């Protein structure tokens, strides 16, 4: 995978973590146990430190960076959706950052909070625990329900399981030229559904 040292600092990746070969890690990057880093994510520790704590995930095309001397941190079981940008901020334990959201410098997302897709969290914003945050600029909308937090935790577990699946079965291959008869589908339990479907069926 593209890992680069700078000024003598090399990325650190725990053996149980999975970092996709097409992700890029530069410099002072610490990836903890059971983390997942998706293709095309960029974790650039050439100014400040980038930290993924145990069980967290950073999905496709995410960017993590910060100003000199700052830490950009995703705490334990943090979940960062596709295309999000984290800059010099802290994402609390079991929090979720939605797709294409931006979280700016010195912002803190509280434990088990959810930042909605495409939200813009301003520099310095302090989000309490268990809150739904949405908008541009982001505002606290309401407290999250136990059902919503459980849904988030289930989703994060699927990424922790994906880490293991990737270690076990992911490998380069040549594509087939046509679909095989009776092609198998990937199998998951019924808990892995969009939140909107979960609420509809509740």
Automatic annotation (TrEMBL):
Cross-referenced Gene3D superfamilies: Hexapeptide repeat proteins
SUPFAM superfamilies assigned: Trimeric LpxA-like enzymes
Pfam families named among the record's database cross-references: Hexapep
Domain of life: Bacteria
Protein name: Phenylacetic acid degradation protein PaaY
